[in-house]
Amino acid sequence: xxxxxxxxxxxxxxxxxxxxxxxxxTGDEKHSPAATSTLDALWVLYDRVLxxxxxxxxxxxxxxxxxxKGHGPMAYYAVLAAKGFIGEDxxxxxxxxxxxxxxxxxxxxxxxxxxxxxxxxxxLPLAVGSVLGLRAQxxxxxxxxxxxxxxxxxxxxxxxALAYAGPAGLEQLHTLVIDNGSATYGWPxxxxxxxxxxxxxxxxxDGRDHRALYAAYTAPHPGRPHAVVARVEPKS
Length: 236
Known about the structure:
Elements: H1 8-23, H2 32-36, H3 39-48, E1 64-67, H4 74-82, H5 123-136, E2 144-149, H6 156-168, E3 173-179, H7 191-197, E4 201-206, H8 210-217, E5 226-231
Parallel strand pairs: 1-2, 2-3, 3-5, 4-5
């Protein structure tokens, strides 16, 4: 985690650097809109909030980040490269037969990746299990973050995890929802209201506003899991 003093110029330069890193990935099936929708939210999380580094990826006390919205992982790979988890030289092989950077991240091939994503809707249940596992080990310090897409909330497995986590008081659990208006059914009252009804702390912010994202990420939520809904431009 780095200094929390941010300027608009600094944020713009950082995002421009990430776009340059993403441009190195020239493989097919890039799912560019899915990647760019997560870019700012991922960067603020890794740069200013998550307590994990290339040196601490095996440390039991590290924070965990789970990417459930795993299709179109270019932004995630760019952030990992910018933070030194992987070398920039591997980006150009994205999606290649011999590349560790697949169209979904693989935890056995990419340093810092906590889960192998695939079918949508699995990340939040896995995050709940991760928190319970930490509790069983007596580890109250590490925080678990999971990034999901708004369309993933169409999956029943998320509803079960969401409904369990609030009453269970899983304070170590944090969910980042990227809302680009791609959900099939939508949510009367907004996505945050669904989490709040289940006993979560929840905030909705502009998914391109770094200051707003940081404030939402770090808002206190004693005794409750926390959800941040980051709204971005609608998927075209």
